[in-house]
Amino acid sequence: MVETTTGAVVSPKGNWLFRIIQDHYSVVPIIKSRSEIEREKWLLPQCILFNRWYCMPAAFIVQFCCGSLYSWSVFNKPIDLLIFGHITNTAPITFYIAVGFFGFAAAMMGPWLERHGPLRTCALGTCLFFIGNLLTALALYFKQIWLVFLGYGVIGGFGLGVCYISPVSALQKWFPEKRGLAAGFAVCGFGAGSIVVSKIQLPLIHLIGLPLTFVMLGSIYFILMIISAFVFRTPPPNYTLNGSEQVTKIEKVESSNQTELKDTYVTNGIPVTTVEVSPVPENIEGLSNNKYTVNGSESKVSKSEKDEIQTEFKDNDIVTVIPVTTTTTTTTTVEVSPAVVVEIIQPLSEMRLIEALTSTDFRLIMIMFTSNIIFGLVLVSRLSNIITDVFGKSAEVASTVVAVNGGFNLCGRLVVSMTSDFVGRRNCFVIMLSLQVIILGCFSTMTNNLAYWPFVITMWIVTSCYGAAFGVIPAFLSDKFGTGNIGACHGIILTGWSFAGVVGGIIFTTIFDSIVGSVDSSRYKPNDPYPYNVNVWWIFGIVCIGWFAVFFVRPMKQDMKLTGWIKRKIKCCPSKNQKNYEVRT
């Protein structure tokens, strides 16, 4: 691997595997024809115009169907009884296979999503998930567990991973000014699906049988998801939002008559060809539509093969620019009249995908995200067992606690992601990881002293943090690496979820079984919290690593605003000693 003078990474001639990987993770923006742009203006041809807000319910529906994965545990006992005649705990392996292929599909198909768009990607995933459900029904009919693994675990899990990232990528592009809201609304459907679907599976099994249940649910999922897929599309070239452009500070530029522009000019993270003048001079035409002209005529600036823009401008001209790929963050100003100067702001680095994936920030975010979700994914999944065994509550009480727990998961996805638009993405992760460090440190104290309500409340908080991570991370990645890279970056980040679910679950089960099944197991009764407490300590270490990692992630603008506001408040509130000193002086 060789690095050129421009910073580009070039693979050696003989390393064919590296070239394949590099080509796959090199995203080329979608180029739309004029007819395609005109066609995508309509949701239904010549009947209903497309509106970006239609993507919200469509994303919720797709994620709702994907959330059925979390309700797989309802099928474990019925599948074991149907195939083996008794409980063998073989069916749960399907869930771990599905989780593994979910993350693998999201990581592998992310670049494909950015090249072909969310409609094709979601349609592909929907078809795979439907085929997986049909194969599972066939496997149950012939009582072949390996076909269940292949159908739902491999094919179904792969399809779910593809469907999961499609609406998230689309919403991040359509809602640059509300990225947290867009991400949270999309992924909260996943939490809602896990709650609702789990309530209808058993009645459906009793009504039509286990094999037909997969046929029925698979068909319903297919119809809902394929209709929703046709709503998704990417914004037209140079998509902007009136009133949301970030043009604020005015600064004069000393320049020659010819300037080479190599930077990506973006507004709220979306590349644009036009920017907005503030204040708007009265003698300039074309500003009502946010269009820029050069001396009254529309500017014709084209992009060259080297991703460079060359344009000429003179004093008192209004200059139109178009975006290109770059790896630097700059602020460029162009003088357009003796009294008015435009500042073009680039709030993020629109990196090449391979550069984003190999950056230090991406590695730190990966560690931070995995550390944030591992406690909620591994331990809280056994919440019902802890409530009944350790605290001695009934199964009905445990069921109620788990149901409320699902509600906190859903609320965390939506509420915290919306809050991140105002307080910053990194600050949200700092708060969530800090809360988990405190809760994990107090876990054994609560279980040993049978502090039931403090335990339940803290588990609900942990579950909120778990769900919130999925809501905040898409917006965080868009802010950091640009909306053009969100599909691939988000997909690879989700492998952290797969890793935590599969590897973390295996480690937890191995430690738990080794303690319960040890020679001294006679002293560990079912209500003894010791096996759970021992597992908490290795999870505590991982969460601490994530807590340290988050402070090394470079903060964004909103993160700095919050810390700056806190510092100003501290300065405005003098201490008691300072007040006494002022009185004496």
Q: How would you describe this structure in keywords?
A:
585 residues; mainly alpha; two-stranded antiparallel ribbon; 19 helices; globular; disordered N terminus
Tell me about this structure:
With 585 residues, this protein is mainly α. Helix content is 62%, strand content 6%. The protein has 19 helices and twelve strands. The protein has helices at residues 16-24, 34-39, 55-66, 73-84, 92-116, 118-142, 145-174, 179-208, 210-229, 353-357, 360-378, 383-389, 395-423, 425-448, 452-481, 486-516, 530-550, 557-572, 576-584; strands spanning 2-3, 9-10, 42-44, 48-49, 258-261, 266-267, 270-271, 293-294, 297-298, 309-312, 331-335, 341-345. The strands form six sheets. The chain has a two-stranded antiparallel ribbon with strand order 1-2. Strands 3-4 form a two-stranded antiparallel sheet. A two-stranded antiparallel ribbon has the order 5-10. A hairpin with a 5-residue loop joins strand 1 (2-3) and strand 2 (9-10). Helix 11 packs parallel to helix 14 (425-448), helix 11 (360-378) packs antiparallel against helix 17 and helix 13 (395-423) runs parallel beside helix 15 (452-481). The chain is globular, with a radius of gyration of 27 Å. The termini are far apart. Residues 1-11 and 242-349 have low confidence and may be disordered.
